[in-house]
Amino acid sequence: MSITPRNIIKHELIGLDVEIVKAKNPTLIGIKGKIIDETKSTLLIETSNKIKKILKDQVTLNINIKDYIVQVQGKVLLGRPEDRI
Question: For position 9, what pLDDT does the model report?
Fold first, then answer.
């Protein structure tokens, strides 16, 4: 199954480009990079100069897939990745 805006929540996120557009911690807004790992409650995002560990329930992300940018609240991504997929 290919990734689309409709099934992104039930798809593998590792390798996708993201940008944090809303966050409880304002210093996180604007972080851009590639998701390199995912746990139950965190995302590891590789930016141009470091790796950031982000709590899913604290942010809203713009995720780039093909020709689309999909905005996803991190709360809907909570849980073990293998259970979500």
Answer: 82
The single-letter code of the amino acid at 42 is T
The CA radius of gyration of the chain, in Å to the nearest whole number, is 12
Residue 73's pLDDT is what?
94
pTM of the model: 0.89
Burial of 33 (0-12, 13-18, 19+ CB in 10 A): buried
* φ, ψ for residue 30, nearest 5 deg: 100, -10
Listed as ranges, residues in the chain with pLDDT below 50 are none
Token pair listed for 28: 């996180």
- Identify the CA nearest to 13 among candidates 31, 29, 32, 36: 36
**Structure-block tokens of residue 37:** 């790992």
CA–chain centroid gap for 67, Å, is: 17
- CA diameter of the chain: 36
